[in-house]
Amino acid sequence: xxxxxxxxxxxYAFASSRNAVRKVSQPNIQFVGDNNLFITYETVSKxxxxxxxxxxxxxxxxxxxxxxxxxxxSNPMIKSAEVYVAxxxxxxxxxxxxxxxxxxxxxxSYYIDDEGFYMPLSSNYSSRVPLVTGYVEKNNLKNVxxxxxxxxxxxxxxxxxxxxHQDENKVIYLKLRQCHFLVQLGSVDFLDxxxxxxxxxxxxSLKEKTLNNYSKVNLQFDxxxxxxxx
Length: 230
Hints:
- It is elongated and about 75 Å long.
- The longest helix is centred in the N-terminal third of the chain and has 20 residues, at 2-21.
- The chain has six helices and twelve strands.
- It is α/β, with parallel strands linked by helices and 230 residues long.
- Helix 2 (41-52) crosses helix 3.
């Protein structure tokens, strides 16, 4: 029994020793989720090299995976990154990109991601999301994000809204595809009710073929839609 136990311990130590000195292979980079790449394989590979040199053929025991993960997660295009090495020495980096839901186009241009944070534009891919114009501050995106999230989750709004405008008093306006009128949301209070009122107005006016008769549709008032004719 003692001999058998000693043999098991020896084999385990031998395997662990071989595993520790096993060389790391060329990094295997995998993107999780959306197929639209805002950040390229080459960029991820460069981030790995910049922060740890060429990891290929490096002994596994000398590789600090936390350093690599922190380097990848510091990139503003990346939502999360997980780096691990398989028993055979394959280094894998799993990358989840940030997902934009609106694009700010003021004196600065950038995306707002699905968590309400800043995301830079990508030279590799341009996302078709509503534009955000007017008075928008990068460190104060709460109201615009609330509206953009509603648009993202609502089939009618996602199909029809092309622009979110915020004026200097934080009053929100919407522009709809193929419509001449401006939708005045006002604040983000009672947003669901305002959207329901907009849908009811839109469907009624579409049926009556009167959508082009208005220059402004005001949803700020409770339980009513106030329209300004052209």
